[in-house]
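Q: Hi! First time doing this. I have a protein sequence and I read that you can turn it into a structure. Is that right? Here it is:
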Amino acid sequence: MILEDNPHKIFSNPFGLCQGDFWFNLSLVLTIAIIGTSCNPDLKKTTAEEFKTTIQGEAQGTTWNIAYYDIRERNLKPEVDSVLDAIDLSISTYLPNSVIDRWNESDSGGNVDRLFMEVLIESWNAFQASDGAFDPTVKPLVSLWGFGPEKFENPSAVDDAEIERLKRFVGFDTLKFYFKGEKLEISELGGLKKLPDSIFLWKPASEFELDFNAIGQGWSVDKVAEVFRVREIEVFFIEIGGEIVVGKPKPDGELWRFGIDKPESDMENRALQAIIKLRNRALATSGNYRKFYERDGVRYAHTIDPSTGIPVQHNLLSATVLGSSAAEADAMATAFMVIGKDSTLSLLKEKTYLSNYVYLIYDSAGVNKTFISPQIKRLIENPE
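A: Yes, that's right. Below is the predicted 3D structure, encoded as structure tokens:
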């Protein structure tokens, strides 16, 4: 959650900003604008905070919240809505006849648009970085266990034979592209100088399906952030469904504050594990402590391990990741929740570039404990 001036006001956002010459320049511009009010009696604003704009909306089955500072006081809500609508039309599994919905229903694949290709490339990067733990082709198994977009009750039982059958249709690296008469691997798509407007994505069997929900909201945050950066608005936070990107600090130098929830299922009385101050970063948290169901005393979490085909069973309760992009943070937080605490720590040692900004909460004999990378420790407000 993002904590603004009112500590009880909750947003699902986090992001940091940087200080320096920019802030001197912004303060100077604001000062000039304020001095200018003496020449124009219609101008009443005298503080930088009065140039702050907040906008909200709904998309992708959740809410979004944005705050930004803009001397020109532009209303960017129509542009944000337009971007999010276009994304829904491309990759929303909850929207009938979206590009991904048509592809999932196809026998051998179909044409996908540029937005689809962009998030596919981001997903491939996470698939590679996580050694396959992040795999958007896991959708058939997600649906089997009752966590997909389909509207049905959680199953009373899941047949082992059906799990084994559907595992044959999980494998991100089996998908191929056809472009100008040639077959391309997903890894080759990112090497094109310019992505085409449309391209044919082939699948080896009709049962293959894609689900970008574990990266889509983070990637959407990145796409919305582009709207602000193109317009040279650098002081902002953007949150969609809990995934966040922030720009530079507020005009007074204050950083954006993000609260990491304690891993508890009670949504009414949310308590904080820690508060992180951020600038110019993206942040995402994934956890299994709210989206689950129980049958016969067994808890089934919504995170499905693509290698086993069953909901994960380990002691990692939540993973918070800071990254240069929200798509990266979102996907890797999911990957860590797939492999669990011990395997995550092993992966971080092997791939040190992933280890800089990670905050894990795990259960140890009924007591919640944490692993916090040194870089995040420096960002925690009032660390114990």
